[in-house]
Amino acid sequence: MKPFAIDHLGIAVRSIEKALDFYERQLGMSVSARETVAGEAVHVAMLPAGESRLELLEPAAADSTVARFLEKRGEGLHHIALRVPDLGAAAARLKEEGARVLNEPRRGAGGHLYVFVHPASTGGVLLELIQDEQETSH
Ligand code: ZN
Description:
Layout: E1 6-12, H1 16-26, E2 33-37, E3 42-49, E4 52-59, H2 65-73, E5 76-84, H3 87-96, E6 106-107, E7 113-117, H4 119-122, E8 127-131
Parallel strand pairs: 1-4, 5-8
Antiparallel strand pairs: 1-5, 2-3, 3-4, 6-7, 7-8
The site of zinc ion has 6 residues, from β1 and β5.
C-alpha cells in the first residue's frame, strides 16, 4: 500500500436520495454502505470508485457543519480524505508545525479514525486524514 492514497471524496448534498438518482440510477454506481454518524450529525452513503470511494453527505441536523456548508456554499465537493499510516503521529506533527488540525483523532463513518485539517492550512480544501487500518491490524 502506497502512502497517502485517496480514501474518498466527500460531497455535500441536500438529499442523498436525490443524489443517488444520479449516481446509482443514471450513472450506474452502487452504494456499499449507508450510516448516520451521530458525532457529525450527518447521513452518509459510500459509493466505491476503484480503490477509492465517493462519500455523499446529507445533514442530519439543521445546525450540523454540513448544513452550514450547504447554506454558505451550496452542494459540492466538501472534503478530500487521505489515508496515512500513523494518524496520531501525522496529527501531532501537523499541530507542531502550526497547521490547523480541527479535532483529536476520533471514529467516523465505517469506524475509521480521522482528523480534519482546516482549509486555511491546505490550499483551500477541507482535508480529512484517515488511519490506514491495514497498517495497524497486527
Ligand atoms: Zn469523509
